[in-house]
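RETRY 2/3 - previous attempt timed out on the joint model. Re-submitting the same 563-residue input unchanged.
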Amino acid sequence: MKWVTMTKTPYIKLVECYEKIASTSARLEKRDIIADFLKEIKENDPEITYDIALLLQGKIFPPWSEKEMGISTQLIIKALSKLLGENTKDIENKLASVGDMGEITEELVANNKQVTFFKVPLTVSKVISNLRKTEEITGSKSQNKKLNYILELYTSAEPIEAKYITRTITEKLRIGVGEGTLVEAIAKAYDMDKEVIDRAYMLSNDLGEVALRAQESIESVKSLTINPGKPIKPMLAQLSPGIKESIEEMGEVICETKYDGIRVQIHHFDGQTKIFTRRLENVTKALPEIVEYIENAINNVDFIVEGEVIAIKDNKPVSFQYILQRVKRKYDIEKMMDEVPLKVFLFDVLYYENPVAEDSLINRRKLLEDIVTVSDDVELSTMKVITPDNYEEAEELFNWSIETGHEGIMFKDVNSPYSPGKRGKNMLKYKPIRETLDCVITGGIYGKGKRAKFFGSYLLSLLDEKTGEYKTLVHAATGMDDEMLATMTERMQEHIISTSEQTVVFKPAVILEVAFSEIVESNEYESGYSLRFPAIKRVRDDIGLDQVDTLEKLNQLLELQNN
Ligand code: AMP
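RETRY 2/3 succeeded.
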């Protein structure tokens, strides 16, 4: 379908697409709506495909970019109050009750009684260019200048457009589209395999570029690759259930020390070095000595290496908190450098004069060994190639790693390419340090077979400190020996509220300490989370019901876990 006489795509077209996507919860339908829209763009206004692909993600810059709009909700409120002559306090109150600044914007603009003479239909290009301009503004009166750019957009926007302008600024589109759906939509729109699009996205970290090239040709997409200067999402690790098990499943692995610091992706290009965290924040300024160490250790060619920066004191690694302080530091960096000396352990190379991210891990490791001159400041991770036949050596490495103050070990498939952003089976982590939570028993399930007369598994809950209620978190069965099974079953009888078939509801009374490896999201439990590999450690008769661990504590642990 041609959009007659329109040389520039009106913003309302994109907004209609957002609304259509939001109106269905079916993922495939969402994919098809986006694919159709991309096809229309290709036909009518192919030059804006890059921008469209970003805007469909609710972004105006690609994820690799360090650029940020820097517009606070407060500034949006100010702009709206200026446009409508509303009191900022009133808008703030609305925000407190509605919660979605986008909806409030739509409502305010719809009720706008002021006549404006400057209303011109918005185009996609106008919206994105005004928003991008806000990034460039620095210095005095910068807030005012930013405000003018967004005010100009709100002045011309239809209410529904204003809603999505706000949502783009706040980076919360709320149309229920994830990266996976966008990747599939691009593949469908340009009739290509999803794997081709996925690969290009992983390596470029730029869906705009991927869509633009897919619009051109398959060759163009396939030639997209990793580039020094553009950070990519780090490859992530799954939890290993145990050393022997993991090695047997994976076959030949590189087993290496897991360091407790921060992960860094170090890019060297055009003679300059940049350091990015796993969230792709540029922390080069905070870590000047790492820049120096790396430039001394590797030739001055374009490269990307990855490793873990750790803090060292008296020749021993110090807790992760120290290094966090260093990375967050904006001032007195020199002073901190003396207080907390750092070193880096490199474990991967993704680019060295050429892209190597898709080579096998074993070859990348060999390359790393060739290109790095190790010193006290830059080392390579301690590693060993292990097969199921010599898995005991992995146990030795694990023990050595723990004794020397590190966090655990990693298992990495020797044949695997680097898969940016993926938490797959090619890389596992194994840590001995298990967190514990004190949970109250709120339910139980009778065991099977020999254990049929005992509660074989307990439903454990945490305290919701806001409501005073207990919210379910996990079923825990492991950790109880025969004696504990019997004594606990007897003890729990007096707390039974109701029984149905195999399950029992208990009055909150008895507290168990449970150890676990990881907190994961879950629809199954009221807390919204659950625990992986839970193991009951002991009954906590020494604390009262008011000391049961809270959802807040769970959130704190979750934050630590995700760091
Ligand atoms: P996760 O972040 O949960 O996927 O766990 C893996 C994390 O362990 C990475 O993000 C790194 O920060 C860290 N790490 C420490 N040592 C290594 C290593 N040798 N190889 C890979 N990751 C490592």
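Residues 1-6 have pLDDT under 50 and may be disordered. Closing ticket.
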